[in-house]
Design a protein that fits this description.
Layout lengths: L6 H6 L10 H6 L2 E2 L6 E2 L4 H11 L11 H19 L6 H12 L3 E8 L2 E8 L7 H14 L2 H4 L2 E3 L8 E3 L10 H16 L9
Antiparallel strand pairs: 1-2, 3-4, 5-6
């Protein structure tokens, strides 16, 4: 979908990273894998509700996904994207989870007549189960993996203490966000260049 959310909006809701072109990347970034144990930013129900409320305008209309199904798809997405970045085969079960989520709510084109004239809309078929939001997110991952030119833009933040993923549409982008990891790097560089006063012996 062409509708975007901004990183500022995501951060105002309490999440460090977001506003990527794909909701799938924003979902992957709700799990901080460098922490031990990993930190689930969607764990608190209020946080999950806030995140889905922000993302809902980029997703098909419908109820928020089940938390267990969300975590399962998120784990599969992280595995497939991390495997690509690490140049290793992705776990087959993760690939199957993504395919299953994508197929759980099939779509069909629909002709709609309104005041602006005829237009094509997409109908998401959830009448037999499945969640349209998760199906759309899984479809984004499949589209990304099937697009070599776009997949080349996939990066992990250059901060070794950060696990966030992003699409480097600006080829010079190295950090997940300029105001968190980018700022930390600038502060570290400044600190490294600043002369330290000589210690005097007593």
């Amino acid at each position: 979908m062409s509708i975007q959310v901004s990183v500022e909006e995501i951060q105002a809701a309490g999440f460090p990273m977001g506003g990527e072109p794909l909701v799938a990347l924003d979902l992957a970034d709700t799990l901080m894998t460098v922490a031990e144990p990993a930190v689930d930013l969607l764990g608190p129900p209020a946080a999950a509700t806030a995140w889905w409320d922000i993302q809902s305008r980029r997703l098909p209309a419908g109820p928020a996904p089940d938390p267990v199904a969300t975590r399962r798809l998120r784990a599969a997405i992280r595995e497939v994207l991390d495997a690509h970045l690490e140049d290793r085969p992705a776990d087959a079960a993760a690939v199957e989870d993504i395919n299953a989520a994508a197929s759980s709510a099939p779509t069909s084109p629909r002709l709609v007549l309104d005041g602006d004239g005829p237009r094509v809309a997409t109908r998401w078929h959830t009448e037999h189960g499945g969640n349209a939001a998760l199906a759309a997110i899984a479809g984004e991952v499949i589209g990304l993996m099937g697009s070599p030119d776009r997949l080349r833009l996939l990066r992990r933040c250059a901060n070794p203490e950060c696990s966030m993923l992003f699409l480097a549409e600006n080829q010079r982008r190295k950090w997940c966000t300029a105001n968190i990891c980018g700022n930390r790097a600038r502060v570290a560089r400044h600190y490294a260049r600043t002369p330290r006063p000589a210690r005097t012996s007593r």
